[in-house]
Amino acid sequence: MPEIEIVSLFKEIQVGDKTAFDMLFNHYYSKLVTFAKQYTKQQESAEEITSELFVKLWLKRETLLKVLHPEVYLYVAIKNSCLNFMRSHQKRKHVFAEKEESAVFEGICNGHMSFLEDKELRKLLDEAVASLPEQRRMVFKLIKEDGLKTAAVAQILGISKRTAENQLYKAVKTLAETLSDYLGYHPQSKVARKQQLRDLSLLFL
């Protein structure tokens, strides 16, 4: 959803437009739950945190005109709520984490690598994403699955844009190596060494 459209929805919600609120909810709820779960490791808690955010959003809708970047605002709000949740549960060390959700790879390789329909490979890639360091995994998911810009992801996670770019590069490299081990050839073998990160990332669009 273009940022200009999100800003428009925020303006409409600010004056009490329930239809605009429903549109925002339907577009972001699942994405924000997935993002929250990367912190909480619990589906139920992630859903609760996300639901509470939307409730607060509606109750405090009069203040939404002050929000300059709505998409970043939503993700940062979820992150802060998750951090508060985790701090309040630090003493409960025996919380059973649910199994990591499967990463969504429908868009990977833009359809020109039909082997992605191979369930074994899909499972391998899911596991590869799940095994990435936390920050790297979040950067990859936000950019490649949620479609956020690098600058927005950097702002959401509180890191520099350069760090976000480096983390994305390393994530893509790791997944490419995973494919190489499975396929017997490296999917980046035709990519020139001096290509920029955005060119390398095309393998995973």
TrEMBL record:
Ranges of residues in domain RNA polymerase sigma factor 70 region 4 type: 123-175
All residue ranges annotated as the RNA polymerase sigma-70 region domain in the record: 24-91
Pfam families the record matches: Sigma70_r2 (PF04542), Sigma70_r4_2 (PF08281)
GO terms for MF: DNA binding; sigma factor activity
Domain of life assignment: Bacteria
InterPro entries: RNA_pol_sigma-70-like (IPR039425), RNA_pol_sigma-70_dom (IPR014284), RNA_pol_sigma70_bacteroid (IPR014327), RNA_pol_sigma70_r2 (IPR007627), RNA_pol_sigma70_r4_t2 (IPR013249), RNA_pol_sigma_r2 (IPR013325), RNA_pol_sigma_r3/r4-like (IPR013324), WH-like_DNA-bd_sf (IPR036388)
BP terms from Gene Ontology: DNA-templated transcription initiation
Keywords tagged on the record: Sigma factor, Transcription, Transcription regulation
Membership in a protein family: Belongs to the sigma-70 factor family. ECF subfamily.
Protein name according to UniProt: RNA polymerase sigma-70 factor
Source organism (scientific name): Pedobacter chitinilyticus
